[in-house]
Amino acid sequence: MLKLFAAAVAALLVAGPAVAQDKGAAAPAAKVKVLATFSILADLVRNVGGDRVEVAMLVGPNADSHVYSPAPADARKVADAGLVVANGLGFEGWIDRLVKSSGSKAPVVVASNGVKPRTAGGHSHGHKHGHSHDHGETDPHAWQSVPNVKIYVGNIRDALIATDPDGKAAYEANATGYLARLDALDKEVRDTVARMPKEARRVITNHDAFGYFAAGYGLQFIASHGVSTDAQPSARDVARIIGQMRKEKVRAVFLENVSDGRLLKQIADETGAKIGGTLYSDALTGPDGPAPTYIDLIRHNIRTLSAALTG
To answer: How far apart are the first and last CA of the chain?
Structure first.
């Protein structure tokens, strides 16, 4: 019995230090808090950052970035971030003021650094209630070109490594895997456009956001200015669209936020064009929508275009 008691005490003495060591083990590193200015950038950050990042955004899914105005709650989001990711190219004219007012010392990475800017000729987006968004001479919608987004991914990867050096291997691996998926997406878009009749590669939209897509993939997007992103077009707007479609021999029209079926039928009946559906430009959808990720957005757009222009 005495031998058994001595053995038990010895076992406890051996186990004791191990228990103390477990309690003193280092906790897993906290996730890097990254704030993206809008939903497309947030998706890119998630793909590169993986499990090491916690991503928030200022302009969420299905939201119109062109009417965004920073609120006090947004300044708190910036103050809480360890890294801020912005598009640049004049898309977020308010970002410097917002970061300054928040008191944040977080670095701001411009995802579009290295992209060759496209001149847009001072296009502007008008909105009801007096809202407007003028990007000046530079078209900021560079993410509509998949090769440009590969540049975005490299900039995001490098910013995450600078912020969290311990995650370097993870960020590099995540970025490499995502870049391979973007290469496949780029090939899919090019192959799909190649199957479209050249004379049919023209569409009309009411938002001048597809210049990089058009230039990169050999399509012609004609923006029908005067039709806002948040208002129903007037009879004059519709007449202008119809006249432009006849002149350009456009086979399909894509108008955002035109919910009146009778209006769509009028345009189609008078021009012989197809109603091509919805193209997503500046925002992702929610998880149940057709464009919950950037890759889904591009894939939805090219398949929608193909169905309208080749069907």
So the answer is: 90
